[in-house]
Amino acid sequence: MSLPFDYDRVAVGEFGGTTPTTTDFDHARVVVLPIPLDRTTSYVPGTRNGPHEILVASSHLELWDEETGTDVHSIGIYTMPEMDFPFESMDQIVAEIQRIASELIERGKFPIVLGGEHSITPPIVAAAAAKHPNLSVLQLDAHADLRASYMGTPHNHACAMRRVLDHAASATQVGIRSLSVEEAADIPSLRTTIFYDWNMRKDPDWMERVVASLNENVYVTIDVDGFDPSIMPATGTPEPGGLSWHEALALLRKVIEARTVVGCDIVELSPAPGNVAPTFLCAKLIYKILTYRFGRDVRGR
Ligand SMILES: [Mn+2]
Q1: How do 260-267 and 110-115 pair as beta strands?
Q2: What was the pLDDT predicted at 82?
Q3: How far is CA 230 from CA 58, 61, 157, 239, 273, in A?
Q4: Alpha carbon 216 to chain centroid, angstroms
Q5: What is the mean pLDDT of the chain?
Q6: Given this model, what pLDDT does residue 88 score?
Q7: Ligand 1 centre distance from Cα of residue 25 (Å)
Q8: How far is the CA of 236 from the centre of ligand 1 (A)?
Q9: Per residue in 33-59, pLDDT tens?
Q10: How far away, in angstroms, is 287 Cα from ligand 1 center?
Q11: Ligand 1 center to residue 51 CA distance, Å?
């Protein structure tokens, strides 16, 4: 077994805990990559604890999915050690994330990346776009994240989707309900389709329109603040409104069935002491995504 980085770190835990079927890196179809980056968070920090807490929560998941009649865990889910950041600059961090993501994707792994702040997404998209032509990025988020620069850096989490557009062919942004005057002015010139939270549900076919906006290959980035803060209060920049659990699942299932989803990240969870529900939501969301994406392969065995 050879891992794509040589940090002398102990794994923080396996996604799903101790499952009946375990796998090693070489045989895994899915690789969970924990990236506890928490450098540019602007309001309440704490995303550095997200990956560890999601992995702990995941050990309490039931493996059976009653919606699809599937237990997807045997597809081979391998959890990497947490990434370490012995670097001064965001440029170095971004380059290291891209190097590792490239290696995972080149080896045919389906990456599930756990943040950490949203600035981890652009280098993963860069790696995915190098492998998968005409890549679209589907973002679930409260914030447009389209600033050219913020707090003195183009790698701030508030710039994540602007940087994504440096690499991806297009973006589709869902649940958006917070953006600056400058972002609003820039949007018409950017390769993005935005589904604003205030009006997206007025069309009963809005999920089909999301799917129609996406190219064949799709990378999914889920900022947990895209969810309604009544079910997701554990994030640094909450916004009222947002997606329900069932809306998010229905949308993700439609996209996964209609397009080729090549990878995914869940970012901006800032675990709240005493309230495990938001953290468990993230663990369950990942398992649901894997069920939709790979459940058919398990059932076909
Ligand atoms: Mn956000």
Answers
A1: parallel
A2: 92
A3: 21, 22, 23, 10, 16
A4: 18
A5: 93
A6: 85
A7: 31
A8: 9
A9: 999 999 876 667 799 999 999 999 999
A10: 22
A11: 17
pLDDT at position 42, please?
65
Q: Is the pTM of this model over 0.85?
A: yes
Tell me how far the alpha carbon of residue 301 lies from the centroid of ligand 1, in angstroms: 39
pLDDT tens readout for residues 94-134? 999 999 999 999 999 999 999 999 999 999 999 999 999 99
How far apart CA 35 and CA 267 sit, in angstroms, is: 9
DSSP states along 209-270: HHHHTS-SEEEEEEEGGGB-TTT---BSS--SS-B-HHHHHHHHHHHHHHSEEEEEEEE-B-
Give percent of the chain with pLDDT exceeding 90: 83
Burial annotation 7-32 (CB, 10 A radius, 16+ → b, else e): eeeeebbbbbbebeeebebeebbbbb
Residues ≥6 apart with Cβ < 8 Å to 173: 139, 141, 144, 161, 192, 193, 194, 195
- Which residues contact residue 5 at a Cβ distance below 8 angstroms, ignoring those fewer than 6 apart? 80, 83, 100, 103
- d(CA 126, ligand 1 centre) in Å: 20
Between the CA of 26 and the centroid of ligand 1 the distance, in Å, is 34
Distance 229 CA to ligand 1 centre (A): 12
Cα 291 to Cα 24, 188, 253, 285, distances in angstroms: 20, 36, 9, 10
Domain 25-299 belongs in CATH node 3.40.800.10: yes
CA of 16 to the centre of ligand 1 (A): 26
From ligand 1's centre to the CA of 160, what distance in Å? 9
